[in-house]
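User: I'm putting together notes for a lab meeting next week and I want to include a structural view of one of the chains we've been expressing. I don't have a solved structure, so I'd like a prediction I can at least talk through. The sequence is below, exactly as it appears in our construct file.
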Amino acid sequence: MNTVLLLVASNIFMTFAWYGHLKDTHTPLWQAILLSWGIAFFEYCLMVPANRMGFTHGMNGFQLKITQEVVTLVVFTIFAILYLKEPLHLKYMLSFAFVIAAVAAAFWK
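Assistant: Thanks for the context. Below is the predicted structure for the 109-residue chain, given as structure tokens.
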């Protein structure tokens, strides 16, 4: 569970690093890049321990990556709706359901 919590925190930083600048397109690109790199540092400070912890507690690399992708989609969905003010269409929800099915398949015993 700590792995997932660290992944969530990491992905919040990652989402702002990658997409937070989209609302302010007047900032020069080089400044957006530097700011994004600064934010991404904190993402790595959380992502690396999350992956290490998950791996040492029995998750394999595939399971870690697939879990991270679902966390990324959940965090990004919330970000896109609340921060970017984008609508959540049915096609996005259907796509998300397919990813959830992929996660279930990856953890299938």
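A couple of points you could mention at the meeting. The helical segments are 2-19, 29-56, 61-82, 90-106. The mean pLDDT is 92.

User: Perfect, that's what I needed.
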